[in-house]
Design brief:
By secondary structure, the protein is mostly helical. It is built from 17 helices and 2 strands. The protein has one domain.
Length: 431
């Protein structure tokens, strides 16, 4: 069963990139979903049919699971007032399968060895799949998933040929757009950082450093500004709160300074384009923050708040934010329909109650993991927990990048890993 779970995690990283059987517009079957359905079938057959019951005494995070299940039921209940039933049904499928991933992982992966394998799988997929594919995209202009014009505004659609050619060379790996790939990289970089920190071998540290530089290089060329900020904030959180001693902080600062100067001296010409790209996107981000010049993003949020107010706080119905943005928008969004902010997407679709529950879910998970981290003495446990904490901090900012991340699997893999580790630690503390 655990072997199937590990295959499920691997297939979640691949998503629909290698096999995608379309059932309808926006709904398809691919290995991850097939495996998840198969695993649930085995659970029903083995535990409920043969044994007559499902043992859950080892699950020590039931409050989190209860909230996720209530979230799915609320999505189903929202059919009562949804305007676009098809969108709601798709949303229910996406949400329930991803919640199912969390439940399966928490139920079966409950030992330190399980957590170590999970951590290793994340790094293996990054090293052997996601990084090579991203570089392949940039060099060849070939993508596993074709460019979708729905991510363009009405102004950009006037120059479709230009943008189609431009996006062809932007790294996306197994994702539908570069922002999702950038979010994946931002959530993965903390795993690389902790791998470097806790590796005893100099060769492993050098391998980790090379992997980190490749991640940063690809991240810059995704042009995902929110994920730039996510990585920077995640690093400073790690440096300030998880690197304990002043002496170690000095060593890290000195190492980074020497490494930066060395790279500038050795690869000055090749790094020029990289820094130019980073500077251009960071400048445009600062322009947005200071002057609010990204009017479309602002109008998407303003429309979302109008929809929530008009729905008396219950939300417009699961998956219906796109329908309302298309038919009931008060402020112009230039044809962009996705909210482009995960937090406001939840608020718009599911209303105030689920939104507050999700915020509590997120903050509580982070605080409980941090409290667990302070009690850990085993370096393997600290390495894993540290990566999860930094990723969760980065996620807060990364989740404002993509058009929608409900069906972007890296966030669900992260939360399943975080909840699985918290459950493991609570089990350990009881024994």
């Amino acid at each position: 069963m655990k072997f199937l779970i590990y295959l499920l995690i691997i297939s979640a990283f691949w998503g629909s990139a290698i096999f995608d059987l379309k059932l309808s517009e926006g709904l398809s079957i691919f290995p991850y979903r097939v495996l998840l359905i198969f695993i649930f079938f085995i659970i029903l057959l083995k535990h409920l049919y043969q044994q007559g019951k499902l043992k859950i005494s080892h699950i020590k995070i039931k409050n989190y699971i209860v909230f996720l299940i209530l979230w799915v039921f609320y999505a189903i209940f929202s059919l009562a007032w949804s305007q676009d039933y098809i969108a709601t049904l798709k949303n229910i499928v996406f949400l329930s399968t991803n919640v199912g991933l969390i439940i399966v992982i928490v139920y079966y992966l409950k030992s330190l060895d399980d957590m170590k394998r999970f951590y290793s799988l994340w790094l293996i997929m990054l090293l052997f799949v996601m990084i090579p594919l991203g570089l392949w995209n940039m060099v060849t202009g070939q993508q596993l998933i074709e460019f979708n014009p729905q991510y363009l505004s009405s102004t950009q659609l006037q120059y479709y040929d230009y943008y189609e050619k431009l996006y062809r060379y932007i790294p996306r790996a197994t994702f539908t757009n570069q922002n999702d790939y950038a979010t994946y990289l931002a959530l993965s970089i903390p795993f690389v950082i902790t791998f470097i920190r806790y590796s005893s071998s100099g060769i492993k540290k050098l391998l980790g450093l090379g992997l980190l530089l490749l991640c940063l290089f690809l991240l810059i060329f995704t042009t995902s500004r929110a994920n730039y900020i996510a990585v920077i904030i995640g690093f400073f959180f790690w440096f300030l709160f998880l690197v304990r001693t002043f002496k170690r902080k000095i060593k890290i600062a000195a190492f980074l300074s020497v490494a930066s100067v060395s790279l500038l001296l050795i690869f000055s010409n090749r790094l020029e384009l990289t820094f130019e790209t980073f500077n251009t996107n960071l400048t445009s981000l600062l322009d947005i923050v200071v002057s609010g010049s990204n009017e479309v993003r602002v109008n998407l949020i303003k429309n979302s708040l109008v929809f929530v107010f008009n729905s008396f706080g219950f939300g417009v119905g699961a998956g219906n934010s796109l329908y309302y943005m298309q038919h009931h928008a008060v402020y112009d969004t230039e044809g962009i329909l996705n909210v482009h902010n995960w937090w406001f997407e939840i608020l718009t679709d599911y209303g105030v109650f689920i939104f507050i529950g999700y915020v509590i879910f997120y903050i509580s998970l982070f605080i409980n993991l941090y409290n667990s981290y302070r009690k850990l003495e085993n370096n393997e446990e600290k390495k894993i927990c540290e990566a999860l904490l930094i990723s969760l901090i980065s996620f807060f900012f990364s989740s404002t990048s993509s058009s929608s991340i409900l069906n972007s699997l890296p966030q669900w893999i992260l939360f399943s890993f975080g909840l699985g580790f918290l459950n493991y630690h609570r089990l350990k503390m009881e024994t």
